[in-house]
């Protein structure tokens, strides 16, 4: 399937990730466990509502899969929904594609407060997507399976993700080709990634290939993009 990253690439990424994240854990233990602020030194990028482009199953009105109320975006999708357009055969999704801020160098950061209700499984809730036509569709996906947030369907990033607001920060150094994931201000995971030409952020619900639930939902608020030179 076009959206899937190849296994050799993924396995290589996991091996690097495993060694990096144990170093990160040691560093954080040595430092007394303090998280620090992942956005320190970054500059906020101005986002308008128009930058939040909603993609949803092509045959239903947006209001049947997406709600934006009191600053909270709620996304849901069903396992038998259609793709987001008639040309693609990708799995069902209701997602925001952040537009107008695609980047190809520098350091970029996604911040959002997310909520995943218990029962939702087998779904990507956030992605760093490569340019259309790239060899690999993504360099990072955060999946939820049975209450655990994972890097793709591999290493666990955070257990007990259900039924609470969590702060997510994802830092992508596009020049060095590294990503780091912070949950509630603590660095939980990092890895090298395969570089591509340009990138953009997505979040919402995108059904995956195992352990999916009939309905998949996530909520997001206070989504912010940051960058630094
Ligand atoms: C989002 O931002 C508003 C305004 O700063 C704040 O009151 C609210 O608590 C934030 N939401 C979450 C889930 O952190």
UniProtKB/TrEMBL annotation:
<dbReference type="Pfam" id="PF08787">
    <property type="entry name" value="Alginate_lyase2"/>
</dbReference>
<feature type="domain" description="Alginate lyase 2">
    <location>
        <begin position="46"/>
        <end position="226"/>
    </location>
</feature>
<dbReference type="InterPro" id="IPR013320">
    <property type="entry name" value="ConA-like_dom_sf"/>
</dbReference>
<dbReference type="InterPro" id="IPR014895">
    <property type="entry name" value="Alginate_lyase_2"/>
</dbReference>
<protein>
    <recommendedName>
        <fullName>Alginate lyase 2 domain-containing protein</fullName>
    </recommendedName>
</protein>
<keyword id="KW-0732">Signal</keyword>
<feature type="signal peptide">
    <location>
        <begin position="1"/>
        <end position="24"/>
    </location>
</feature>
